[in-house]
Amino acid sequence: MIKKAIHIVLPFALFFLFVFAVSKTNNPAASFQLLTTEENFVAGKPITLAFSTPSKIATADLFIIHSYGKTLLKSKNNNGQLLFKIPAIYSQKTGFTSWYLLQNKKTIVTGSFKITPNNNTPTLLENYLGPTTLLTGLNHFTMMVAIPTDSYDNPKEDNTTVLIKDQFLNDIRITAEKTKSFIAWKNIYSRTTVGKMLVSTECENTDSKEFETDIRPSIGKDFSISFSRNHKFADGNQITKLETSIIRDQFGNLVGDGTLVTFQITTKNNILLKTFAATINGIAIAQLLHPDHEDTYRVKGYVTGIAESKPIEISYNALINTFPYQFSEKNREITVGPLKSFMKQIIPDGIKVELKIFHHNNLIETKIAESSKGITTFYLLPPFYKEKEYQFEITTLGVTQKTEIKKYENN
Amino acid sequence: MAKEKSNKYLIVALLIGVIFHSSAIFFTLESTYDALIHMFFAQHYATSWFEPWNYSWYTGFTVMGYPPLVHQSIGLLSLIGGLKFGLFTVAIIGIVLFITGVYRYTLMITGNRTVAGYASIVAVFSSSFVETLHIFGQLPSIIGVSILMHCMPEIYLWIKTGRLKYFFRSISLLAVTITSHHVTPIFGMIFFIFPLIGMVIMDVSREQVDSYKEIKFKLFLQTFFKLFKRIVAFGAASLFLIIFCIFPYWVNSKANPITQVPIPHGSRDNFIEVTSSGLMFFVIPWGILFFILPYILYRYYSKRYICFGLSISLLIVLGTGGTTPIPLKVLGETAFNILTLDRFTLWASIMSLPMFGEFVYRLIEGDLKTDIQNRFGNVYHRILGALFAGSFLFMAGFTITLGYFRPFQPEKINTLPLVNFLNQDQHDQWRYLPLGFGDQMATLSSQTKAKTVDGNYHSARRLPELTTRAIERLENSKFRGMEGIGSLQQFLTVPEKYNLKYVFSNDKFYDPILYFCGWHRLSLLENGIMVWEKLNIAPLPKVLPKDEVPLYLKLMWGIIPLLTVLIAFVINIQSIFYKALKIKDEAKPDFFKFAVAYKKFPFKIITILHLWVILLLGVIGYSMYDFYLYNATQISPTNVVKSYYDALDFKYYEKAHSFIDPNKKLSISQFMLETSVADGILNSYAKLDAIDIQVIKSTENRANIVAKTKWITPLEIINKDYYHEVLKRDGKWYILPQKLPLDIPPDQFLLDNTTEYFKQGRRKITTQQTYHEDVLKQPELEILSAKLIQYNNEYIIIGELQNIDNFPADVVLKSSLYNQHDKVLATFNAKDVIKHKIMPKETTSFRVNFEEISWLKKDVAQPTTFNPKEFTPKDISETPANFDIQSAANVAITDFYIQVALSDLLIENNHLKGTLFNYGIQEVTVPELIISYYTDTKELLYVDNYFLREGVRVQRKQYFDYKLLDLSNCHILLSSLDNCYVNGLPNGDLARTIVPNRNKQVEKELLQKVNGKGFSYIKIEMNNYIGNPK
What we know:
The complex is a heterodimer.
Chain A: H1 2-24, E1 33-34, E2 40-42, E3 48-52, E4 61-66, E5 69-73, E6 81-85, H2 88-91, E7 95-103, E8 106-116, E9 124-130, E10 133-135, E11 141-149, E12 161-168, E13 171-178, E14 184-189, E15 195-203, E16 206-207, E17 211-216, E18 225-229, E19 239-244, E20 260-266, E21 272-278, E22 285-289, E23 295-303, E24 307-308, E25 312-316, E26 325-328, E27 333-336, E28 352-359, E29 362-370, E30 376-379, E31 389-396, E32 399-402, E33 406-407
Parallel strand pairs in A: 2-8, 10-17
Antiparallel strand pairs in A: 1-3, 3-6, 4-5, 4-7, 7-8, 9-11, 11-14, 12-13, 12-15, 15-16, 15-17, 18-19, 19-22, 20-21, 20-23, 23-24, 23-25, 26-27, 27-30, 28-29, 28-31, 31-32, 31-33
Chain B: H1 8-28, H2 35-47, E1 53-54, E2 61-62, H3 69-110, H4 113-125, H5 127-136, H6 139-161, H7 164-180, H8 183-208, H9 217-226, H10 228-245, H11 247-255, H12 275-286, H13 293-300, H14 306-318, H15 326-338, H16 342-365, H17 367-376, H18 378-405, H19 416-423, E3 431-435, H20 441-447, H21 464-467, H22 481-493, E4 500-505, H23 511-516, E5 520-524, E6 530-533, H24 551-581, H25 603-631, H26 637-649, H27 653-658, H28 668-676, H29 681-684, E7 687-698, E8 702-712, E9 717-729, E10 732-735, E11 781-791, E12 794-803, E13 809-818, E14 824-829, E15 837-838, E16 843-849, E17 882-891, E18 900-908, E19 911-918, E20 926-934, E21 940-947, E22 957-963, E23 970-975, E24 980-982, E25 985-986, H30 991-994, H31 1000-1005, E26 1008-1009, E27 1017-1025
Parallel strand pairs in B: 3-4, 17-24
Antiparallel strand pairs in B: 1-2, 4-6, 5-6, 7-8, 8-9, 9-10, 11-12, 11-23, 12-16, 13-14, 13-15, 13-17, 18-19, 19-22, 20-21, 20-27, 24-25, 26-27
Transmembrane segments (chain B): 9-29, 74-103, 115-136, 189-206, 227-251, 271-298, 305-324, 344-364, 384-405, 555-581, 601-625
Keywords (chain B): Membrane, Transmembrane, Transmembrane helix
């Protein structure tokens, strides 16, 4: 079995050995000389390097290093002449190219050539504009960058002229910029009014598309605030509207819609309350619920850290000075009210009434109920309130009244 | 020998079985627990047969973690008629294999073809089989155990006769079992094949003496040594097959050992305490079999079957899970926590089937029938038979319809809109996360190229965030309490780590946490699923990491399983043909010699069975009575309140209303209106976790009750006490209706002007990358302050930032801590203590906690209570010397609701008691307060947050009560803006060009003076989540 295998394998092995040996010894050392004299080529044109050698059989490889990459080219000895055709992907790209002629892994001849942009092809323009939004003012700018290239995407030689144009309202400006290190660029400064600026470029009869950048208002200046309300009473059920004046930036533009204004309210007791609003057309309108007790609010508006208003004062008058209450059902039912408002109308439902229950001056429980039709009722269930006497404190609409001590029967 | 007739019972069983099960699977299989996972694996094999790596789940995992035969078969068939065709075809094959398997197994055990026929009929309706197929969908398990049953007669014959053809038949079938399910052959060896060997030895010994009684241990041992070579040959061959056939599986198990925290499984519960687990894993699989358990044990403990008797006893005990301590002791801690113990009950019930068949045969036409008829009369026998058959069929019907009456899965989701969404606009370049999909997430995965961080085969989980928790999937994390939500929160807070950009929410429950982690709603798909998106997430890299395995493993994995089927088919086809078509008379196999003649049914067994049934009925009756008492709604003050909350929790308003005092004349419509007006975290996103009802004061007919409730919400745990007055009328307790809020809003009609935003994305209709000029400039932020603090031994970054741009911004804020040598100690993002969506010029305070991947260390005790707010702070052993903050803003267009005013505030007893008033036109579902604390020099010291329990309706007030913190042990370690970056640029560089002269004093005017512990001023900010934007 094994013997048979050897009989098959051996002839093959010998054959390959022979073939490799032949190819190995087939390339005698020889001298080469560059025939091509040009050292500058234009991108896109075919490039061929020719070498001559006295040997009729010797070949060599050409190793090239190009900005696009490296590669090894092979050639045949055609009657003492070797031709190397640089592949199109290399010859279409500009840059400096070094070449090394290698024979049997040894460098024999070296040299270099340069490929320059092809000015005979239509020019292409690559553009970048940023940022795409600006603030009004004299210091903010957007940068237009243009890269003119030939059709093979090779940047043009330096000092190519690019026209950079911008339009803002009626103002159209055109400047000519020269490319440097492949690019031409310009800082286009913002204006003092809000609007849209269009920018484009032109180079060698090629025009770019339209680019845009929005000029938006810069930060607001200080403003004033005002308020409006239905009445001045502290009924806990009406809304006071707080409104800013039109907030503008330093150039008189309305600040951006959605700018947040914080209204801070300082009460008589130095408690800070807050309400918020975002501007529309420069005005922010926030709302605030009336207090349910007498108070004076000091209100100030802020665009935090940026702008603020002068404070204003809003006073709320007390709705009542006193209120009636009755005990019934063996003192077990306490009825507070009717609570009446400033025109003797019954107050809106839902006013909070607080009942504090004391026994021998110790607070036992606080019950809270809301008024309905001006009346609030509390009921002390006998099983749960077993003491013989209780005293109560009733608070509503900022008014507190203390009752006398009430006696209870035990059942 | 006369020609054998076809067994008509078997044919009947096959006909009924195939019709019954294969028509039912079309309605059940897709909503089972496992079937869709098998389909997903099948899809993997259908698309890349030899490549074990799957990118779809868990940031990539290997499918070598599960024996591939069933998946590959489905995958292969899917090439003909699609995945579902493959799934159903394999399921039907499984049904046929199971019925014939039971037939052959019974034939071997009893040696009686009629009995075997009966057994195959009862197998069709056996509740454990019905449950495994129609509720669990465990196809590999069914196919594995069926082939094992086919294999057993061959093993018997090999050991008995020593003929090589039986040897090859048996091991060829065993190989198929191994490649379809790994656990079945391993435990099958112990529980099925060992007893089988014992039985063969008994039979061989029996041939040497006159009866089984004469077999003594010595003879048994002698026979054993006589057969030893055959046994060893079989044992060695099967061991080799177990290793060789799924060799890549073993290699993978060694490379990726299961080091995960065990996932709780119902089969490990105490079935008496957790009755639902008891039902699923004990009552249903046993079903009616449990009533004749004494008979089964009596038969299996006869001398011939003694080994089976021991085996089935062990199986019964192991199947009881955590009810008794024995399974834990027998299996050891590790195996107990990895295995699902329901399989033992399944095997026990399958092992019982021959005896069940025998019992039925004897009851219907055998000696038991005669005996009962003689002793108790014909009528009794018929009634008994009818009851027995009736309850047997009822169990099967009950099991198969269980999923219909109590769905285990969310309603079927139409995945097409999701698939389309993922294919659109390159959405599949990011990972997605489904929430509330149940096992249907596997369906989605099998239909799309897009990848998810989650997955549905928990043994393959790789991310430590997942393997360290006992959570099966993120998708259903709300059922896993603290660990689930905690894990989900980490994924949602740091989504860029996983390239996670989209969340598909099929469960409103998760909405608040998504919002507060900085996600926003994108669109509602036509199947009702909400897509949430997170900004500032990089797409997946083009090349994803994978674990490479050697080529030979890939080839083994791809070739061997189907090859085993092919070989088994070739080897066994002849005998199947002969048997089925009766072409040739085959010699009756040896086990026919040992059939028992059913002559006299022992009366004491009849007596024992009667007593056992009476005992069981007694237990069942008592538990039902107990259940009734526990659930009787109005027999005591506590019961009525408890029932009321149960009813509300499940939104059974009508039932809840029936507990309200009827004398108060509260109509159901009024009641529903009152209970459902208030939206909020508690009303819309909470699940009642526990309720403790205490009587405060009580008299004969009246009581004051406090219901201390504990609610699970996605944000935090909420404890709330509700006070109720209850009274007794006509022997029933009722709840007095709560007083409803009377407050009326100021205006009847209101209008509101707001600025709305829209972004185009790509302006050209193209599938190409977004053009440079269509990319919006990132809004400019300014970090106003940043501090490293130490609070309760935890290092925290706090600060304030402002959107100084004209566009609203979505803010992502990431912070890292460094030691003295600039080594990163920890990195995390701001979670919910920040307002992620801010308006132009709006400020927000923020806090970054450095969270550890929770409970990474085993020795850290895991908290047993649920609190999603809780997390394990990262253990930073070195003192941080420096920190940095990387903030990024992107243009946001939604979720800026600012129309909530702080309209009243009272500071007393270290509490902030305040009122919020909503003046806009959207109902705020979850208001969050961000409370910043300042020192006496008005320097930021700490930032805290507080979620209001109830929402704020339009033009209404909502009260809050917040307890101020004690910050006496909170220290500022470092206060610096040096290493703060905005959109990749140093903080302040651009800000100074926008806001040249910032008024720092103003920020200090906005602080509220308080006398706190360790602080002197506070600031309150609001972050409003709108659950249902109009």
